[in-house]
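Long-time lurker, first post. I've been practising inverse folding by hand and with some scripts of my own, and I keep getting stuck on stretches where the structure tokens seem ambiguous. Below is the full token string for one chain I'm working on. Before anyone asks, I'm not after the true native sequence, just a reasonable design that respects the backbone. If someone could post their per-position residues I'd love to compare against what I wrote down in my notebook.
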């Protein structure tokens, strides 16, 4: 199919994914693998997407020459995979950000603190296999603060998309800045990539570590060092 085809054949509704894509394109909204498109979905479209994706997964299994009509193990795999993608492992694309309230920093706290390890689960954009790891967040509070557990919620939402690790960390930093406008923000993620463990070079021990520092953590090297020291302490407490 090419984009020159009419969006719907008379009497036949275009697939829901195509309607959504056309809507996003005409609004100039990006829909890369790690973008969230929740606010551009109409009521009921997520349910329709689930049906469409299940159909496509069923075709994928057929193309892999798996006898889904007679194999009791894969009979409902297509439906499970569709639900898993849309509502679990890639929910950060289709579901809105969980509601996170921020509060004024009445005590004017300006000491840094770190939260972690927060478990992060994602999938690589290249192979759609898991990326599993830990995340530490360092905050020097600004005008507003959010509850500690909220960092896990926002990280889970951001990571539940197909990603590359570097971009996941950047997107998480943007969201945290939007939520509580800290004076300084540092994030470190250490993760295992199953595209290296399960396939490819099959290197089971390798992990990828990356970090981002913004605001005061960027300008003040002692603050930055303090963050990495706190992370190291928390990590060694885990053994
Ligand atoms: Zn990969």
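-- Answer (accepted) --
I ran through it position by position. Result:
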């Amino acid at each position: 199919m090419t984009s020159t085809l009419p969006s719907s054949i008379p009497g036949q509704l275009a697939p829901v994914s195509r309607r959504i894509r056309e809507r996003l394109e005409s609004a100039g909204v990006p829909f890369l693998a790690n973008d969230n498109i929740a606010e551009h979905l109409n009521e009921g479209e997520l349910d329709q997407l689930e049906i469409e994706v299940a159909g496509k997964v069923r075709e994928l299994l057929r193309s892999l020459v798996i006898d889904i009509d007679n194999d009791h193990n894969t009979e409902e795999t297509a439906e499970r995979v569709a639900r898993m993608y849309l509502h679990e492992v890639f929910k950060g694309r289709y579901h809105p950000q969980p509601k996170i309230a921020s509060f004024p920093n009445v005590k004017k706290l300006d000491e840094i603190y770190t939260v972690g390890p927060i478990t992060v689960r994602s999938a690589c954009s290249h192979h759609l296999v898991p990326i599993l790891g830990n995340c530490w967040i360092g905050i020097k509070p600004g005008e507003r603060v959010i509850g500690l557990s909220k960092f896990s919620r926002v990280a889970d939402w951001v990571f539940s998309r197909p990603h590359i690790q570097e971009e996941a960390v950047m997107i998480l930093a943007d969201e945290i800045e939007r939520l509580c406008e800290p004076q300084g923000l540092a994030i470190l993620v250490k993760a295992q990539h199953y595209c290296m463990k399960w396939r490819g070079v099959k290197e089971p021990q390798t992990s990828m570590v990356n970090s981002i520092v913004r605001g005061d953590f960027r300008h003040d090297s002692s603050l930055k060092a303090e963050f990495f020291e706190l992370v190291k302490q928390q990590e060694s407490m885990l053994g």
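A couple of notes from the structure itself: Strands lie at 102-104, 113-124, 130-140, 144-146, 162-163, 184-193, 208-215. The radius of gyration is 21 Å. Happy to go over any region you disagree with.
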